[in-house]
């Protein structure tokens, strides 16, 4: 059963300074800054500082875009670039993200939101603690902000304001009560139900397609011989070793084992006798078309439904994630309605 209802990608809140990292809905300035150090690594891509978007006159550059692309696909650093088949999609997602963050920041300014000096100082201290030495910090400061602490403080403030507005408009509004989670659980029973399933081993004899009458006769004889040998096995290992030796299906390489197979995937010729067997028992020889199979039942698990008490916390978290995605998308639409967004 799956509780993964939705997954949102949230970025760094800092198009012009911090590198972004995959995060929860309101990444802290400190976490953002930590990711920033990695972004200082030379990129295999050509970054010139050229504009890629303009939001109400504020320019976002290809450097901002690349940071966000690395956040969406961090493996690019290890592989010297992005997979060609995914690069356009990654770029699109990253561009939308840095545009959204700039819109959120501008909205925070429009609302005259502020950051207290104490909180600002704490965020600056947290940022500086991400570095292993003073020299490392100064090198990053020079590389990213031309050595300007004023720019650094402005970007940290920017990040905090984005955090605050997202908390107001997304996080605080996405809370899921226990009653809401219970209602979802009751209305969607299949989502929390694990179907009846079987674990078993098989030995199969499979003649070639369009086999001659003699080949089919030989296959039948092979199957009968295999059945006698299978009946003589006494446990999982003995049956499995026999499967590896004589079976002709793809499962022979794993001792003939089929794990957690749902009933919908089993033909009636196998399912019906399997339901009547006990673990450890071996079936009769079963014919499926021109092929033959013998199976040994390892386990039979009845249909089960997860108890609400066991999953309530995970379910509430998943439902909250979905609400956050909806709220973020709605916020993005509202902010874009009255904004001038130009992609360059």
Q: Explain this structure to me?
A:
The two termini are 45 Å apart. Helix 4 (117-128) packs across helix 6 (149-171). The protein is α+β, with helices and mostly antiparallel strands. The radius of gyration is 30 Å and the shape is elongated. Strand 1 (51-55) and strand 2 (58-61) form a beta hairpin. The protein is built from eleven helices and nine strands. The protein has two domains: 29-183 and 313-343, Orthogonal Bundle (Triger factor/SurA peptide-binding fold); 196-302, Chitinase A, domain 3, CATH 3.10.50. Helix content is 51%, strand content 13%.
- Tell me the structural class: alpha+beta
Write the CATH architecture name of the largest domain: Orthogonal Bundle
Q: How many H/I helical runs?
A: 11
Radius of gyration: 30 Å
What is the name of the CATH class of the largest domain?
A: Mainly Alpha
CATH homologous superfamily assignment of the largest domain: Porin chaperone SurA, peptide-binding domain
Q: What is this structure, in a nutshell?
A:
The chain has 344 residues and is of the alpha+beta class. The protein is built from 11 helices and 9 strands.
Key phrases:
344 residues, alpha+beta, Triger factor/SurA peptide-binding fold, Chitinase A, domain 3, 2 domains, 4-stranded antiparallel sheet, 3-stranded antiparallel sheet, 11 helices, elongated
